[in-house]
Amino acid sequence: MIAKYRNRTLIYLTLASALTVAIAFLVHKNMHTRVSERSSGLIAFGVIGYIVAWISWVLVGFSLARAKGYSQDFTGTLFMVVYFIGLCFPVVVVAFPLYILFGMEDKAKNRSRRH
Known about the structure:
The chain is mainly α. The protein is built from four helices and no strands. Helix 2 packs antiparallel against helix 3 (72-88). The model has no long low-confidence stretch (mean pLDDT 81).
């Protein structure tokens, strides 16, 4: 793996995981609150947080593909496919990095390293 993109992937993964946990907490909190007592600010924060978490998960997959040595053209095409499928099935966006990590070969392992 290319270290620059691997490190960027770890940052995006941390952000995406934290946002996903925060959104799950907000959904859980709103489910156990009466409708009349729900804060519209928390609901708006939840919607915006969901969108940011979704984008973060896509960026995790995109950076991971770059870390494995795939070109920007290939990862851009892959990004668009996951983007459009992810609009219909949001679980695909979270599973996308797992597919790249375990399903795609590492093209960067044969490259020479600089010393």
